[in-house]
Design brief:
By secondary structure, the protein is mainly α. The protein is built from five helices and no strands. Helix 1 runs antiparallel to helix 3 (about 35-55), helix 3 packs antiparallel against helix 4 (about 60-80) and helix 4 packs antiparallel against helix 5 (about 90-115).
Length: about 120
């Protein structure tokens, strides 16, 4: 299995997962167990997909799945913001920036993989 702990995208995805674990604690009970669960699970799936893509012989299909999972996570975040699950806009903006960082790194990885 390929090593992945050194990858910047892995570190960024881990920060996203940890961030959601800490952030969801502040959600109301209703949102904690609905949208909060989706956000936490989605961020873990992103992290797992990074590891899977790193170890794959054919990375491009795995990276495209990662793109879909990131888009899904962003949609869930948007919904959570619209129903005011986040305590404030600042928390939402911070998490969007973190997820966007993972998205940018994934797009770069896709481009470098396509060139090969």
């Amino acid at each position: 299995m390929a090593r992945y702990e050194h990858l910047p995208i892995y570190k960024a995805a881990l920060d996203v997962a940890v961030g959601f674990e800490k952030l969801v604690v502040g959600f109301s009970r209703y949102h904690k167990y609905t949208l909060g669960s989706e956000l936490r699970n989605g961020s873990r799936r992103v992290l797992e997909q990074v590891v899977r893509a790193n170890g794959a012989r054919e990375r491009l299909p795995e990276l495209l799945v990662l793109r879909e999972r990131l888009d899904s996570l962003l949609l869930t975040m948007r919904l959570a913001m619209e129903v005011r699950a986040f305590k404030g806009f600042k928390a939402y903006a911070h998490m969007v920036e973190q997820v966007s960082s993972v998205c940018r790194q994934n797009e770069g990885w896709i481009k470098s993989t396509e060139k090969r």
